Structures are given as C-alpha cells and as structure tokens.
Amino acid sequence: MRRVGLIAGREIAAYAGVPSFWVALFMGPVLMLLTALAAQAVLPHPAAPLPRQVAVLASDPLLAQTAATALRAAGKLEGRGLILQSAPAATTVRIETGASGMVGVDLSGDPLPQATLAMLSDDLDVAARRERLRQAGATPAILAAAESSRVVVREPPPPAPAPADVGRTGRFAVMMLLWMTLIGALGMLLQAIVRERTNRALESLLASARAYEVIFGKLAGVGALSLLVLGVWLGAGAAMAASPLGSLGGGLPAILLGAFADPLALLRAAAIYVLSFAMYGTALIGLGAIARDVPSAQNLSRPVFGVLLLVFFVGLADFAGAGGFPWLAWVPLFTPFVCLMAPPGEIGAAQMAVGFAGMILATAAFAWLATRAMMSDGARPRRVWVERTHDRRARA
Amino acid sequence: MSDATVPAVPLRITGLAKQYAGGRGVSDVSFAVPPGSVTGFIGANGAGKSTTLRCIVGLTRQDAGQIELFGRPADFMGRQRLGFLPEERGLAPRERARDVIAFHARLKGVPRGKAYQQADRLLERIGLGGRLRARISELSKGNAQRVQILCAIVHKPDLLILDEPFSGLDPVAQAEVQSLFSEYRSGGGAILFSTHSMSAAERLCDQVVVVAEGRSVFQGAVADAAAHAPHGVYVTCADDAALLEVVAKLGGEAQAFPGKMGEFLRWRVLLPKTVPYPALMRAMADRQLPIHGFDPIQPDLEGAFWSLAARKEAA
C-alpha cells in the first residue's frame, strides 16, 4: 500500500510539475465562462414592446376615465405601456352613450388585443350600470352589495413543466461529465505508462515494486488528478449556476448540480466513476505496457476509444428519446454509462449489482493481463506446447 | 546493509532455464555468489547474461531451476534486499536527481527523511552535490547513468546486481563508479555484475562465472579461469592457405577470429603444449609468409574466455 502511495505521488508530481497541466485544468472553466459570455452577447434578446398610443374620446368623463384605467391595466398585463393622448393616435376609442342607456364603443386605427377589449368592455359595463343604479337612487350599500357579486371561473392547473425532461437532461449531463473525465484521464494513463516504457524507467520500478502496485499506483495518481479536474469543472459550473449566467443554456449548470443534490445519487455516481475508471484504466495500462512506443500505444488503444465513442452515441440517442438501451447495462464496458443515463427504477438493483460485479471482474482480468504485459521484456516466449506436440508427433 | 542477518550465500542459482522463441535465453545456468564477494558474470552477446539477471530480480519468470536469495527461495521480500541496475537504463527526464534517488530508496522501505539524506550524501559523493535539484534532462548522459547507479545502491542492499554497469561511461566515470563499488563492498555487500569487458572483470572480481550459449561453463577465481587460457597465438598473414598448412604440420589448429586486421583475416592458432611460439614463427619464415600480426595468447581471462566458450561449442 505504501508503494502504491509512493507511485501515485510520483505520478501526481510528474503531471502537476508541468505548467501545461494547470493551463489545461483552468482552460475548462475559462472556456465555460467565455462561452456563456459570448452566448449572452450573441443570442437575440426579446425587444421591449413600445407603449401603445391610444386616444379616448367620450362625452361622459366618468366613462373616459374608466376606459383609460382599463386600458392601462390591460397594458400592464400585456407588458406594454400606454400613452393616452388626444386624437389623432395609433388607436382611437370613441365612447358614446345612447338615450336608452346603451354604451357604444367604436374603435379605429390599430386593433387592440381581444383581452384588452374584453377588459375595456367589462369595466365600461360595470361603470355604466353603477351610474344608472346611482341615478335610480341606489344607496352606496346597495351598490357595494351589487359589486360584490363576482363570477369566478376555475381552470384546471397548468401541466407541470415536464420534470422528466429536466431529469433526463441532468442524467445526460452527468453521463457526459463522466465520459469527458474518463477520456482525459485515460489519455493521461496511457501517456504515463508509455512514458515509463520509452524512457526505460519501468524496469527499475518493477525491480522495486510489484507489477500490480505499479498499476494501482498509476491509477490512484491519475485518478486523483482527474478528480481535481472534475472538482474544478464542477466548481466552475456551480459558480456559473449561482451567477446571472446560470439561466443560460436552459440552466444547464443548475440542472447538472441538481443531479448531484441527492446524497444517494452522489454516492452511486461516485461508485460508478471509480469502477469505470479502474476498468478502463487497467485496460489502457495493459495496452500501454504492450506497446513499446507512442505510435503503437495509440494504435493499440484505438479500440478502447472506439468503444467510448460508441458509448457517446448511445448516450446521445438515449437523450434524444430513442430508448431501448437498458440491456447494455449487462455489458461491463457500457454498464457505468447506461446506469447513469437510466431513469430511476428502469434498471433494477439486481441488474445493477450484476453490472457492477461484471465491471469488477473485467477490472481484475484487465489488471492481470496488464501485469503480464508489464513483466514481458518484449521477447516472444517459446511456444512450449507447440514444441511438445511437435516432439510427440516426431516420436510417434 | 540492512538490519537482517546476511546469510552465508546471498545468491545461489541451480539449473536455471528460460527459453524464448528462436533459441534465445538460458538452458542450464548454475552458480553462487559468496557473501562480500565481487562476481563477474561474463559471456558474449546473447549468451544469456541479461536473462539470468532478469530472472534473479523477478522481471522474468524462469521455466525451470531454482533461485535462492539469502538462503531462501527467491521472493519479493528477498528481492527487497537487492539493488538492481538494468541493462536498459533510463529515468524520467523531468524528475530531479535527489527526488528520483530518494524515491527508489523509499520504495525499498527507507523512511522519507533518511532517504533524502542518503540521496544528498551519495550525490555529494559523486561530485553532484551542487546539482541536487537538477533535473535528469539537465545532466549529461554519464551523470544520468551515475544517478541511476545511485538509485540501485541508495537503500544499502545486501546484494548488488548490475547489468553492464560500465557501458556508456567514460574512464573517469568508470573509476568513480568502481570507487563507489569498493565503498559498498567494504560495508560487507556482495556484487554480481555482467560485463563484456574482460579487463574490468579481471581487475574487479574475486570470481567469475562464464556463460556461453545459455549455459554456465565455469565458476571460480579469476586466476583459476586464466589457467584455462589455451597455448596459442593470434596470427595475421597475407596467405591464409599457407598458414593453415604450416599450423597443420605443427599439429595445431587454426580458427578464423572475428575481426579483420586491415584486409587480412586474423587467426587464432592453438598449438600443442610441446610446441613453443617461436617454432610457429620459424615455420612461417621458412615458407616466406608475410606476417602482419603475431600475438601470443596471454594466460588471462580473455584467453580463458575464448577457450571456455569454444569448449561449450565443441560439447
């Protein structure tokens, strides 16, 4: 364990001692901020509507005042100001009272919205009735009683703003975060082992430590660095969510942080992250140990990154609503991503346990192969079985 | 040295075999390294020296045979008492000299403070005291190699195993490294080192192990090995056919020696013990053969090596 820690510390020092690591680390948050600022500057903002210019012409000053009040209230609801002016105006509202007490409203110029017209009509109606009642001798108490009568129309509550969609976005964002962190960390791991191979330091290391200690030391060191990257990125995301820029991108930073709000979900995500990093990491270390130089390491690791590309497309398809991917949780290389993408309850506890066990087994198998590759000196071993078979046949 | 009691024999190998495709590897290597001794492990390229050393330090698993370290079958704990300098040397270029030495000490269980103290002392000892914080990439190739040798001895191992420790070092650096080894040995440690250089082996070793084509063909004191040197002469002359005739007439045998002297082949002529060198020279002069080179084989390790290796081939 002590040697694992020492090798991990050496790995951290190897990366942290290079200025480009810190540039890359803070490049993420800086890019995030720049993108948000650019989006704010570039995306079109809805222009504030101009105040409506209306001329109200009425012989009865009471009705003129009522009409003006109604138009102002409707303008507030509409989010548009009102400028009352004498004719000519964009819209002219002419109010006339007939001998029978009927109130007529004539509109000319720009039309008014239906809701504004309805408010205007209602308020004028109420004002005219009140005036007639007053003229008929109704006392203020009667007037108040008459006005207290109200018709209230109850509508069913509007549908909730599709919480499932917000959840899916959050899960997709978490899955992508794992994917991006994994891609970066795996690249570092591959570099770490190929570097030791090419500068021939691996043999000295293996003479002092067991092969699995070297493997897990490197995993721990690069894992710690990738956690630092993840932390800085999430911290930057949290800062953005708390800032006025948090509403950008549909509030993605807030959605992402929301996905981590539940401690159980956080624990599950952490377990998935550790297992997937160990599984893919041991595979990459094995391939790096087989390779003798950088080009062959890149060629050998291509299938692993190909699988990760496939994972990306599966995640994208699932996000787009294609569905039908839960069965992939049985395949260890896909298990972590499918588990993160699946809505609660879609993947049962048993299936998840089997998926996790598969990942652990795959990690053990990859680690065993990696130790074999690491201890190989590149020479082709004698094919004992083939030779023995050949000898047996020769004797026969 | 470490606190553990040093057993009588730090290393004993019996019937070691490790085969690779194409016939490389070792098929039967047996020898022992006595405590406090310097043992030279000599052999031609591809004889199996590095394979044997890799098996000892656990970098390669043998197909057959036993390796005992300090009286017990070799295991990780036993190997923690070894210091190893691999043939393929290299250090991370960005690491600092004292950090990398201390790191190797700590891997072998030396506490942090003591590891750095020891690293500083050793760097001072080889004249790099002023460059403790220098990165490996800032050091010359020879200095980087010396730092790697320090990595092998920093934890004060009981047995030091070195694969070609002097290759790539200039004479001054070689002398410094030899001085380091002497200091190490004076503390009671044993050394096993492989080399092509017979003169280095002769100068430094108490005993040598000669390996040829995957088999150990000799183990013993340098003086005993030298006694195996054959009676003969290295001859270069313009008429090879005439030379072969002369040698045959004297009852000797001639082998073409790898390497030419100018345009002519160099011959290794083995003579019967009863025929002195001047007899061959006289016979060549009688045939009026132009002689370009005539060097009697010295009774030293180099002469013995060829004889021992040839014996293996004949067997």
Strand order of the largest sheet of chain A: 2-1-3-4
Mean residue pLDDT of chain A: 80
Sheet having the most strands of chain A? 4 strands, mixed
Share of helical residues of chain B: 25-40%
Low-confidence stretches of chain B: none
Shape of chain B: elongated
Q: Which sequence of SSEs, written as H and E, runs from N to C of chain A?
A: HHEHEEEHHHHHHHHHHH
User: Beta-strand percentage of chain B?
Assistant: 25-35%
Description of the molecule:
- The complex is a heterodimer of chains A (396) and B (315).
- Chain A is of the alpha/beta class.
- Chain A has two domains: 8-39 and 165-395, no CATH class; 52-147, no CATH class.
- Helix content of chain A is 68%, strand content 6%.
- Chain A contains 14 helices and four strands.
- A four-stranded mixed β-sheet of chain A has the order 2-1-3-4, covered by helices on one side.
- In chain A, strand 3 and strand 4 (103-109) form a beta hairpin.
- In chain A, helix 6 runs antiparallel to helix 8 (211-242), helix 10 (263-290) runs antiparallel to helix 12 and helix 10 (263-290) packs parallel to helix 13.
- The two termini of chain A are 53 Å apart.
- In chain B, 36% of the residues lie in helices and 28% in strands.
- With 315 residues, chain B is of the alpha/beta class.
- In chain B, the strands form three sheets. A six-stranded mixed β-sheet of chain B has the order 6-7-8-3-9-10, sandwiched between helices. Chain B has a four-stranded antiparallel β-sheet with strand order 2-1-4-5, covered by helices on one side.
- Chain B contains eleven helices and 14 strands.
- The mean pLDDT of chain B is 84.
- Chain B folds into two domains: 3-222, Rossmann fold, CATH 3.40.50.300; 232-297, 2-Layer Sandwich (Alpha-Beta Plaits).
- Chains A and B meet through helix 1 and helix 7 of A and helix 3 and helix 5 of B.
